[in-house]
Design a protein that fits this description.
InterPro entries: DNA/RNA_pol_sf (IPR043502), RT_dom (IPR000477). By secondary structure, the protein is of the alpha+beta class. Helix content is 49%, strand content 12%. α7 packs parallel to α11.
Length: 383
């Protein structure tokens, strides 16, 4: 029953939601939002004289702020069929709960929040959040960053929202509109957890008398976005995560009951994906390539229990482990797969951001980061 209702609601969700919303949607992976964020921040900071300023918004406990009565009104305004709203409404009708203490509190009615673990919660929350953003007028707002003729001022993954503009005044205007619309439906932005990132001199920020934290980088869905547009910070971060995972696997990898080929497969299945997460949008320089190669050899030497003092060549280590595709080769494979995925799509936000041009003049002596991303792919495909 729930799956049938979900399939019916999903048709409306796909029609109503814009492509800037990637949360809980088919064919939209979790790291695609961060892949979209890189061209905007890196391209603006490295390739253009214009300044970009971004705000990462956070809602406190987003799944618990959905007001049921307002949700039914929102579904009706968005054109959801009455019989679907009726079925969804009956799932939440006459809900009661109690808090278990010593003897338990009195039973009380539940009027807010969507059910955690229910397959319909994602559709309900996406429509609820879209209503807020639509009333905030983000599509009609003048604040934007322009790429290939398209104006973009926000990227979303469920409740994680990133607002973007070219000036402090424009971003403050967007923030205030979103804040006001959230308050109208009973939700609130967590200003204390909101972060502002500027690809230029960082100034102090205040919204309604509350100071907003200004940072030089922030984490978006597991990827580190920096104001200076340099991927080296993100690569070092993932290499460090890979080392931690490799260290945690010591008890398994040192077992005498597991053969060497099996251990190699374990490393490639459990360690390498941690390092390559989000690598599709990286612009990797020679120094980073050496770090990646060095990390791979460190993994194989640790697996073979070869100390750094032992005089063994890298070739002999690779010959003994026979890993097949290297970590650098795996990274390139993922980038080419993503590039092919973008090229095959007729029109999409990801294709526009990754392959489109950014307005503005390049800083003198600065390399175009996204052009470097394209040239490296062209060299591997055609060279």
């Amino acid at each position: 029953m729930l799956k049938i209702l979900q399939a019916r609601l999903q048709q409306y969700v796909n029609h109503e939601l814009p492509d800037v919303q990637a949360g809980f949607r088919k064919s939209r992976e979790r790291n695609q939002k961060s892949n979209c964020q890189y061209p905007l921040d890196h391209g603006k900071s490295k390739s253009s004289r214009k300044t970009s300023i971004s705000a990462l918004l956070t809602m406190p406990k987003p799944l618990t702020v959905v007001d049921h009565n307002k949700l039914w009104k929102i579904l009706k305004e968005m054109g959801i069929a009455d019989h679907l709203t009726y079925l969804l409404r009956n799932l939440y009708a006459s809900q009661e709960a109690t808090v278990r203490t010593g003897h338990g509190t009195d039973w009380f009615q539940i009027g807010k929040g969507v059910r955690q673990g229910c397959i319909l919660s994602a559709c309900s929350f996406n429509l609820y959040a879209e209503y807020i953003m639509r009333n905030a007028g983000l599509e009609e707002a003048q604040a934007r960053i322009k790429i290939s003729g398209r104006n973009i001022n926000n990227l979303r993954y469920a409740d994680d929202t990133t607002l973007m503009a070219e000036s402090e005044e424009e971003l403050k205007s967007l923030l205030m509109k979103v804040k006001e619309e959230n308050e109208k439906v009973g939700s609130e932005l967590n200003i204390q957890k909101t972060k502002i990132m500027v690809s230029g001199p960082i100034t102090s920020w205040e919204i309604d008398g509350e100071t907003v934290e200004t940072v030089s980088d922030f984490i978006v869905l597991g990827s580190k976005i920096t104001a200076d547009g340099d991927c080296s910070h993100e690569i070092k971060r993932h290499l460090l995560f890979g080392r931690k995972v490799m260290t945690n696997l010591d008890s398994i990898l040192k077992s005498r009951d597991i053969t060497l080929p099996t251990n190699v497969r374990l490393v490639k299945a459990m360690v390498f994906p941690v390092v390559t997460y989000g690598c599709e949008s990286w612009t990797v320089k020679k120094a980073e390539c050496r770090r990646i190669d060095g990390f791979e050899l460190w993994c194989w030497r640790r697996l073979l229990k070869v100390p750094w003092t032992a005089r063994r060549s890298n070739q002999s280590i690779l010959k003994e482990t026979s890993p097949g595709c290297s970590l650098e080769g795996l990274k390139l494979k993922l980038k080419l797969q993503y590039f092919g995925h973008l090229k095959r799509r007729v029109d999409s936000l990801e294709k526009t951001l990754m392959l489109g041009g950014i307005e503005g003049r390049k800083r003198r002596g600065q390399q175009d980061e996204m052009a470097g991303w394209h040239h490296r792919l062209d060299g591997h495909v055609f060279g």
